[in-house]
Amino acid sequence: MMEEQTTKEFLEKESKKKTLGSSVRPVCRVYNRTWRTSVLMIKFYQTKEQTKNEPEGEIFNMHIPYGIPFCGLGDMMMKMNRIYDLLDYPQSELKMRLWDDTEMWKGTLLENDNGWSYEEDAVERFRQFDTGHGSSVYVETRFRRYGSWQGILQVGKKKLSYRSALEFLHYIVGYLENK
């Protein structure tokens, strides 16, 4: 019988294999597949002139050391999906069919995940985010199945489950109209 090895032991072995003959040790990602990984905090900024226009704000995640700005709900959802793709969580069941997305993210904050933190202290840094004034919504997309999203949206103590990206969008629009 073969001995079972823990994930930590496996990562240590793989790291040693990669660093033989190299003076620089690569950083191993901590793939902690808990709810915290996919939680996004969406911060909406709204001025008096902006009440009839598309909402603007920033998207935060515990692995991203800066906010990802968005302008409009479509832009917000595209960037959320890109963050999920870069995190590879929640994993997408289907590859999205696009005209041509090869250059879409080039030169943007979401071109790749360089500079993102996959260390254990990322949770603490996320809790310390100062998002200033405005309103925040927490989004926990748990699945990306059937070409859509399923998860939980939280505002204050109120939680709503969404079964599709369209339902999520309806919740966001309702929230923005009532705040």
Throw out a few tags for this protein.
179 residues, alpha+beta, 5 helices, 29% helix
Verbal overview:
- A six-stranded antiparallel β-sheet has the order 3-2-1-4-5-6.
- The protein has a domain at 28-136.
- The N and C termini lie far apart (61 Å).
- By secondary structure, the protein is α+β, with helices and mostly antiparallel strands.
- It has helices at residues 7-19, 35-38, 73-87, 122-127, 165-178; strands spanning 39-45, 56-61, 68-71, 135-143, 150-155, 158-162.
N-to-C SSE string, H for helix and E for strand = HHEEEHHEEEH
Please give the radius of gyration in angstroms. 19 Å
Supply the number of helical segments: 5
- Let me know the largest β-sheet: 6 strands, antiparallel
pLDDT < 50 runs, ≥5 residues: 27-35
Mean pLDDT: 78
Distance between the termini: 61 Å
Decide which structural class fits the backbone: alpha+beta
Strand content: 15-25%
Helix content: 25-40%
- Strand arrangement in the largest pleated sheet: 3-2-1-4-5-6
Write down how many β-strands occur, each being a DSSP E stretch of 2 or more residues: 6
Shape: globular
